[in-house]
Design goal:
heterodimer; A: alpha+beta; 3-stranded antiparallel beta sheet; about 15% helix; B: mainly beta; 7-stranded antiparallel beta sheet; 6-stranded antiparallel beta sheet; about 40% strand
Amino acid sequence: MIITNAKYMTNIDTKKVHQVKATIDGKEMFVPLNSANRHYQAILEWAKIDGNTIAEAD
Amino acid sequence: MTKAAELAKMGEVLTNSQIGGRRNIVINGAMNVAQRSTSVTGIGAANGYFTVDRIKLFQSGTAGRLTMSQAAITDLGGFSKAMKFDVTTADSSIAAGELFQIGTLFEGQDIQGFKKGHSDAEGFTVSFYVKGTAKTYSVELFDADNTRHVTQTFNVTTSWNRIVLNFPADTTGKFDSDNALSLYILIWVHAGSTYTGGTAATSWAANNNANRAVGCGSLFSSTDNELFITGLQLEVGSQATPFEHRSFGEELALCQRYFQKSIQNATTSYPSSGGYARGMYLFPVQMRADPTGAYTDASAGGSSIGNSTNQDGYYNTYGSLSASEAGQFSWTMDAEL
């Protein structure tokens, strides 16, 4: 799984952060903040590497 | 067979096997469901799910590449599909840390029947049909909750054979009973000395990488190599029973717990006066966990301005739609282990 960028997203109804928009293996994906989701697990690991950051939501 | 022999055989089966009910814990063991694709080339550079559902490939370090496909087969009674691996780039110089594995993964709550970690723990029986370039490979059961493993080798010939591997019970280390990963079946088809340099773990033991794939040959040794596998089955106990065939609809529903996709474009409603509209979809099967969503816009105008998923469904909201235009999009949902 190759992650190239990640950014928190807010829910358009609740205005609360609810997922991460990420480019994974070259594809845009919307990843819920759920510890059982394998993409979210991978994003958290990716963010531990120096230079990688999950960008704040707009 | 005489009547007496027939009765004796029935008694043996009743004594040693699970009676009735669902026997095969593997989902899509007959390789009939391939929602993502039926053929993908250039595999070997990344882990992932590529063709047949519930089959995950793992790699590390190899320069070998292959095409994985859901192959139509006509030379094995009872089966019409197999997963096929056809080497396109060889790797005959195997560095220590290289590996390539064909895996299927299980939630802990689905494998409690093995009673692993209990004094009355049950054995594991793995069976499958295989043919291909003559090689020896390894099958490893890997307990992700307790980092324990057990392994055996098997031989491939150019004709279909049913491989039956009995693995012992393990009274150490319980599987968690939840929706997280607890057990892998890993078919090793390429391994460096990091994984082959020890003594094969033929009884359950704490993981030792050197003991994971002892005796494993390499699928990547030549571009002439190929491998076909179908009829994958995992059963409780030591008795291998005939492959449990399930209907396509049953298997598809079981697969959809982990992955599902749109067949035709989904749509939103027509927009409100502000040009906003929302499409909502309830999954036919509740997914294992909140899935990762991917959407591809197919609208003439307008675009998605937000979406949300959970185990039961998703919604996708469009903006900037004209009065008589609905948003259109295709989607995939992934809650794989």
